[in-house]
Fold these 2 entries.
Entry 1:
Amino acid sequence: MIKRKTIVRDLSWLSFNERVLQEAADETVPIKERIRFLGIFSNNLDEFFRVRVATLKRMVQLGDKAKMHLEATPEKIIEEIQEKVLKLQSDFDAIWKNILRELKKEKIFITNEKKLTAKQKQFIFQYFNEEIRSNIVPLMIESIQEFPVLNDKSLYLACTLAKKDNSIPGKFALISVPTRQLQRFVILPSKEGEQNIMLLEDIIKFCLPNIFSYFNYDEFTAHIIKITRDAEIDLDNDVSTSLIQKIEKGLKNRKKGKPVRLVFDKEIPSPLLNYLVKRLGLSKKDNLTPGGSIHNFKDFMNFPESVFRRTSKRKKSFTHPLLQNAHSVSQAIIERDIMLHFPYHSFSSIIDLLRESAIDPDVFSIKITCYRLANRSKVINALTNAVRNGKKVTVVIELRARFDEEANLEWKKELEDAGVNVLIGVPNMKIHAKLCIIKKKKGNKVIQYGFVSTGNLNEKTALVYSDHCLLTSNKLIIADIERIFNYLENPRIRKHFLSSCNTIITSPYRMRNACIALIEKEIKNARDKKKASITLKLNSLSDEPLIKKLHEAAKAGVEIKMIIRGICCMLTEIKKIKHPIKAISIVDEYLEHARIMIFHNSGKEKVFISSADWMTRNIDHRIEATCPILDDNIRQELKYMLEIQFHDNIKARILNNEQNNIYINPRNTKKVRSQVGTYNYLFSKKYTL
């Protein structure tokens, strides 16, 4: 067995998704939230196959031509993935059975077509005829010469039609379950004190004799299947084709991407399964994943709350105290730096800032980057209104944000129709930095302020993603934000602007060298017997050169503490080091999305927030912004919040070399759930005006 220097990225990601599954298994978590975590796990796994497994399969096809930095062959990694996924699927099924038992205690039942009362049958027939029938057209797949393209993310019922006396040959059929047109969960008439829910696909199953009444069959079965396709968008190199045209073409091709996984009800008859595998062009070497009778569990993130007598209520976000009674958000920012911590602080303060800027007669310019936006974005609403009020508005919108490409194309059109100057990106690099600069003129003086954020400008995800947003008028930071926008607006002289930033560390031209220099200073101090420490909070750590440098630092005696939510390719258990590396992952009610870096720096600590993870793509192939925190009060605030997280002994798991997700044991110490502790800290924090 090969001894690996790092943990395989894809296996580490599966370990992260296992932590999500642990939340679903945790009986102390409210039942509604446990169901939601099953939905998150399922959605995560779908994306993993659409992107990562699809990439590995491409590598297999390329053979020696594939440029890889893998310590195992892609075939071997795919094999390990399949083994791990089958185990997780088994765990998932066991957790779901347990949740069903808990729901039964609450008098909540997931009913299928075999357990219906006469009243419920009558209701279903009526519902089917009025709502469902017009949305389904069965595909008689045996008589179709070219097998239909099955949509990614969609559910299908694979049906067998037979005659009990075998007087006519049986047939196979497919029915697309119309979950985009109709609710997946249908609440049925129930006894008092009970709640009965039936899934849309089970209603269709019940009505199969009605659907296929044209044929002379009297025996019907149906089993759920789901296909997962390669989601990579191939952008051709035709210089005469615009980026927009390339993306539009790529989106069309994505719908026909190569199948990378077939998930199916394990009770499906073998002849039907074998027929589908053959017609889909799959083989037993592909990821064929048997499961229960329910798939596309991502829909369970929206399981109906109305059926629960007791619903778990999140604590409400609150306005930052320094903005609570502020006459003007912009004036408060001009007077001092303010750090918003989502979702504890309300995202409404960002919307208020943009709305205020839209109507302020002194404001003449707004520049902002957008990566992923909410469906009905209040950010876009404020910006289009700013244009109507005569402001010059520039929006940098990243069209290649994966799975948001189509939505971002639509936002581009809406913004341009409103008169916004829209910039769509840099060749071969995604713009991932989250920045804003606002300019106003008072007399002869131009006043500038804005923000740097670790998360997207999305009011929906800001309710559940843990992020930091620095509101500032600091001249050094604002000057660098302006340089970054100059870089994005002036393609012929781009590199000059980005590499000339003095305060913000930018990717791709400076971040790697800057991080290495910061680590090397800690190494030097440790070797000189001085205090040396590095604290990191990241979504992902997979960049091999930086991991190698961190290992060097640990061996030199640098104290390293890390909170890594997702992928962690770094081996954290190293022999013969002075300070054991403390590495944890926290998965709880909110998604830990923020990035923070702290270097001891001979007592003159350097504290940064960043849009970038320590992944090669973020450091070398994206426009990112890593911003120093210059206000001492905010630095202390961030450090205290990190200390709360490092003391978490309820939702924190140890990131050891096996990545087997062992919870930190509270033993006899006080129990600390960091997200609750962080809320309480920020809610009770007093600020001097």
Note: The CA atoms of residues 89 and 600 lie 43 Å apart.
Entry 2:
Amino acid sequence: MSTEMVSNRAWGWIAIALGALIVTSLWFRLGALPLYEPDEARYAEVSREMNETGQFLIPQLNYEPRIKKPALFQWLVAGSQRLFNSFDAASRVPSVLAGLLMLLTLGWAGRRVLPSLSAVAGLIAIQGTMILFWMMARMAMVDLWMAWCVALALLLLYGWERQRERRVLFWLAGLAMALGFNFKGPIALAIPLVGFWLYAAWRGEAGTLWRAAPWIRWFLVVVLLSIPWFVAVIWRQGHEASNYFLGNELMGRFLGGGESRARGLFYYVGVVPLVIIPWTGLFLVGIGQVIRDLRAAGFRAWAIAHPWDSFLLCWGMGGALFLSLGSAKMIQYSLPLIPGLALFVAHTVNRKSPIPERQALGWGVIVLAGVAMGVVGLARLGLLKGAILLSTCGVILLILTVLPLFSLRWRSLRGVIGTALITLVVYQGAQLSLPDLPNLWKTRRDFGRLAKPYIRPGVKLLTHGPVPSSVLTEVRAPVTEIDPWESITAFSGAEPVMLLGRCPEIRHLQTIMGMPPYRAMGIEVVTIDAGNGKYAFAFNHAYVARFGLPAGEPLY
């Protein structure tokens, strides 16, 4: 057996080991942080209510229908919650699975477009440590599943374009898009089609590719596979659901987006370099090389001579262009662009330097051990806590991002794998700091846990504002949002009432009820501090008469 064959086989095992290490880092301490409010907690609570009520067709939040997203991801989370004991970790397991599928898909694609298994190992290291990918693969959110479907569809379309006799790839791409539609809606159809046809137009092959396959029949099949859940919901919910899907979710999100998600036209120009940290430097190096090549060879001639490069650029540009047209913009919306950018960076590394020998991991392992020992040692000594630890991790990431711009040595595979290993340690270090930063990692789980002991059968739960999903997870009962003045009617009735709110809200209610007109009505309000100085509860006379005076410190 030749040395080259042995080396290639060894790199295959290295690629597998890197993938396993990345998935392990995603799984490690998966339930250590509480579910992030509002997004993670909302997805997890909807699935919990599915399991509790047995209503799986129409998702519910606070025991009311919530049909903003297709139910497929909620079904995965509900199934995971049944399999695993830890609620927080179980809600995130499907996202870890999506991360694994993304790594496998890119490994499969890289094996076909990159020259060796060593380059595939670099690709896995790059994809697995891009900051947005790593974060979203540990969060109970649907975005990574949709991104995987988009990546799979685009790679299959490219494979069909290069081998047009393999029509099965064409149809499988449609199936991947339909699956993505059932995760997050029409965006899973739009991004692959925009990126692929931009690529076809750039190479001057749009007409040829249109005639090479039954696109209209294909699109109709994709749509038919995409809409069964929507049709079932409309059949159950009626005209209201159809107006909601077409008006609010389809047109409203694209044209309106709401003030909280409205961003400028060039929002993703600034976002993309951030979401691919620590590989921003290598990405910029690759873009600079492409610009120089385009000037030398010509726009169309370069695309024809470099189909893979032009395809990856259209993947990123086409997706970013489509996302930029809508008014609603968020960082995680750029997730479908990440696989294409990872492939582009991996191709840049392969193009700029030769692949080193099997011993390339030595440098990375040594640095990994040093950084790990330093971070763990300082954390144990209590020298790195909260913002200090998070800032330290940020500085290290910035160094890893900028350094490749100044050293050709870091463009080699040795530098790529070493950077990836250090980055995984940094991510875990950053995670240790988040519990000490409640303003950054938001959760209301503690409020729900404090309320739970006071909830009795037959008690009506009220709140003056939107109820956090993490509170619903703990109280496991519907909470009604009412106007503060409506509390007067609720507290004067014969039904036991418990109001959940912030301390200022409860004090305000207590002040109002103490005014002569309401005091003359005999409305009794018992208020106690929730125990953390932020939240409080109020109980009416009917509650006290039936269940007794609640234990706790009075709120004055």
Note: DSSP finds 27 helices and seven strands in the chain.
